Amino acid sequence: MQLQVNGKTRQVQREDELLLWVLRDELGLTGTHYGCGIGICGSCTVLVDGQVTRSCLTPVASVAGKAVTTLEGLARTGRDGAVTLHPVQQAFVENPLQCGWCLPGHVMSAVALLNANPAPTPEQIDDSAGINLCRCGGYNNVRKAVARAAELKRGGL
Questions:
Q1: Is residue 58 within 8 Å of 18, Cβ to Cβ?
Q2: DSSP code at position 23
Q3: pTM value?
């Protein structure tokens, strides 16, 4: 079976598996984390056709023909080999979380939010961030990072 993952066509063998395990175990994309296994915590969040998706609940066969984006698919590598972080990634570097286990969920949810709304209100940021759990209570830094990412995407320094 073929999947479109991070802009590349990838051949996968485990068609009866959940997307999380195919990404991690078969494709080696370990930026997507396993947390609760029941879709509540958000550590396994990826984007499927731009929509926030819990990969721990998603059968891999259901994403055939759709664009899957993981944390690893956000940064861009230039012709010279230099890596440019996505504005959301850069914002989380500037506003780090304590342990980072929840980071994939927060980053991917923020990317989806900012793609839909480049200038979210604080309430919209809270709503977006609230779908992911942070064991360390880093929600203030999540809010700061998403607001900063919105600035960066709009060209603010």
A1: yes
A2: I
A3: 0.93
Query: pLDDT tens-digit profile of 107-140?
Result: 999 999 999 999 999 999 999 888 898 888 889 9
Per-residue tokens: 75? 């940064």
**What digits encode the pLDDT tens for the residues 59-100?**
999 999 999 999 999 999 999 999 999 999 999 999 998 888
Tell me how many helices (H) and strands (E) the chain has: 5, 7
For the chain, list the domains and their CATH numbers. Answer: 2-73 (3.10.20.30), 76-153 (1.10.150.120)
Pairing of β 45-48 and β 2-5: unpaired
Provide the pairing of β-strand 67-69 with 8-11: unpaired
